[in-house]
Amino acid sequence: MPEQRLNSLDLPKDPADTRVVVAMSGGVDSSVVAGLLKRQGYDVVGVTLQLYDHGEATHRAGACCAGQDIYDARRVAEDLGIPHYVLDYERRFKETVIDAFADSYLSGETPIPCVACNQDIKFHDLLETARDLGADALATGHYIASRLRPDGHRALFRAKDPERDQSYFLFATTQEQIDFLRFPLGDMTKPETRELARAFGLAIAEKSDSQDICFVPTGRYSQIIERLRPDAVEPGDIVHLDGRVLGRHEGIIHYTIGQRRGIGVAVGEPLYVVDLDAPGRRVIVGPREALETRRMTLRDVNWLGDRPLAAGVHEICAKVRSTRPPQPARLLVCEGTVEVELLTGEYGVSPGQACVFYESEAAQSRVLGGGWIAAARMQPGTIDDSRKSAAAAMAAR
Description:
The chain is α/β, with parallel strands linked by helices. It has helices at 28-39, 55-58, 67-80, 90-106, 113-132, 175-180, 190-199, 221-228, 383-396; strands spanning 19-23, 43-50, 84-88, 137-139, 145-148, 154-157, 181-182, 236-240, 245-249, 272-277, 282-286, 292-303, 312-319, 327-334, 337-347, 354-358, 367-377.
């Protein structure tokens, strides 16, 4: 008996017999995914998650998963002739993403909430909902490629469009989730996606792209944190690397590592925030060269290689910012500890950010996983010495 051919989603069924749930945010990308799959003859079901609802964001250009976007997703589903459901995930989103974001900032980290949203909401809760609806796959509008491996599992690759590549935000996706997910836009560019939206006659074809942090309507993270944790924001000292106390601040949530403007002190030389000492409520500042990082300790590492991650040194490429290309690095695994050594230094690395692994520097290279930065080592002697000097200065006051 001849082997059944795979459809365009690498599933051994006719498209008409293949149910695909599409995560529809109300934006151009996910709407085009629904349109593409519908045109190819799949049994498409649209699902939109209502994640938050605060008035400022409801009609703000760049918002997502709120009132206007839910309306847009519903309208697209009607135009395409597919069923559409809205699921209320506000409470779950607040507990899992927003509260964790606030706690991370208060501890002096620079969190990336969209990774947590993908990991815990979209690719966990929504994925289970898709299974409950009898789906064979869950499709999203992310710009990342997914390809079938010879062993029957799937692997992730950087998107064709480097300006749109979202692999940095999807490093925590598990193998089980990857096997069920599909990313139809991975081999397309944004202009091609918009052209398809126009061809499908979608009213949202020219809609602005959503922002990464959707629940911060003003772009000021400190406002959200002060509202969520009003008693947790405490003033403290602004301390130079050499131990000098230069001034006072109203809370470390107003600062991020690498920041130059708005520090609140002037000493005749350019100063940058080089560390946030949350327990001591200190903002530590210094020259730009003190920001260079070459080695990081990671936590909660998600490895997506073909073989288990063994102890030793592994040659990889890595990036710690979504907008930078991968750079050569070494992955150091020893007795449960995972570190990454960058061959070329990176500036402004902060705990709470992600370090994502790639097979190479090449375009559309394979994603090998990643981890959260627990500690970033800067130039030898800077941060550790600054804390000692700052402590000594405080004791002398």
